[in-house]
Amino acid sequence: MWPMVRLAGALLVALSAPSAIGVSSFAGRAYAQPAGMTRVQLDALVKYDAALDAFKSVLAERRAQISEGRRLPSRPGQALYLARNAMISSYKDLTDVLPSRIGRPNKYSIPPAYFDADNERLLDEYTRLFAIMQAPPPFAQASKTPFKDVADLGTVIAKTQGLPPAAAAIAGRISLGLFYAETNGNQNIGNARSNKYKGSLQTGVTEDGRGRSRWASIKRRIAEIDPAVNERDDREEERARNIDRRYNHWTAVRDGLMNAHADVFGQIPRIVAMLPDPIDQMKVFELIQIIPSPTRAALGSGNFTRYRISDARIMGYLRNNSVFTFGRADRARTSATFREILDAMWLFDEKFDRALAKYNEIHGAPRQ
Question: Would the pTM count as exceeding 0.90?
């Protein structure tokens, strides 16, 4: 869903970032080749240290701009995102040639070969800065029950597709996963990397309008299936009458699900039989968000996990959403099966785990 970016330039962006006060500069560092370290290993170490310094610098720059009330650049999160990617990517290149640098597990569930747990505080600051830059506008209409809303909407939409209660409940759980994947579970946010996508399910104006139209077409059926949801919907429609509906949590989630996912909910029983892991199920629907046409084609192929993507443009969309983004080997890929794509979506795992926990909290169910 993100605009296309040339990820190969991420390291260049990182290397060009100014050093922050108190952060050692790569340019001022002298490297002598340590005993036992090859030139390839030393080169990888130098590039990683440069990317790490650059990430620290961009973090410090954004923090200073915000603290001092200075104007931020357009899409202020983009440089942060690229610098973070450069750090992770160069660390993977380092551990590929120097496996002894692979350390302990980290709280973000990033594979240790990609991330040094000693730098968790940098990702903490990254998250805090994005929360500030993407804060909802003053007129946004929040919900007191944002997580239950998402699950309820996914469930009732699935029921209109003819799914029985158990399968419809899975749609609710998957919808909650999408909410975490798109916004980290934060309602009504903006987007520090895009001027197009906004709200609780990160839709554009066109997508939101299309979803709203599709919801209207099933509105009568919704009233029959769940009168309480229908009454809530009427209240939220009236409430959001004079604002961009992407900034009303209920209508944003409703329209986002209807735009991209509602028609695929009917395939949930087959998807569950094919992919019994709830995390994999969420990943499939996130791929509907990122690369909709290839994912739909794969679902209709009869062998989803072995369906192969080889279009360079589609591979670029995946890379711009943190799939096959990190490390020289992954960036060199020209194709991948959907099983390989699902496995490469490890950066989503922690968010989907939290979505599962939240769903079980809402419904009092143990994790399956």
Answer: no
Which one-letter DSSP state was computed for residue 204? -
Distance CA 184, CA 81 (A): 15
- The partner residues of 336 in beta bridges, in order of sequence, read 309
Residue for token pair 């929360």: 131
Percent of the chain with pLDDT over 90: 88
Instruction: Report the alpha-carbon distance of residue 318 to residue 315 in Å, rounded.
Output: 5
Angle at which helix 77-97 crosses helix 39-67, to 10 degrees, equals 160
* DSSP 8-state symbol, 248: B
Amino acid (one-letter) located at 295: T
Within 10 angstroms of residue 213's Cβ, the number of other Cβ atoms is 12
Reference 77, options 175, 174, 253, 202; nearest CA is 202
CA 34 to chain centre: 39
pLDDT digit string, tens, across residues 235-277? 999 999 999 999 999 999 999 999 999 999 999 999 999 999 9
Give the pLDDT confidence of 322-349 residue by residue, as tens digits. Answer: 999 999 999 999 999 999 999 999 999 9
Burial class (CB in 10 A: 0-12, 13-18, 19+), 102: middle
DSSP character for 243? Answer: S
The mean pLDDT of the chain is 91
Q: How many CB atoms lie within 10 A of CB 181?
A: 24
**Amino acid at position 5, single letter:** V
In whole angstroms, give the CA distance from residue 71 to residue 100.
43
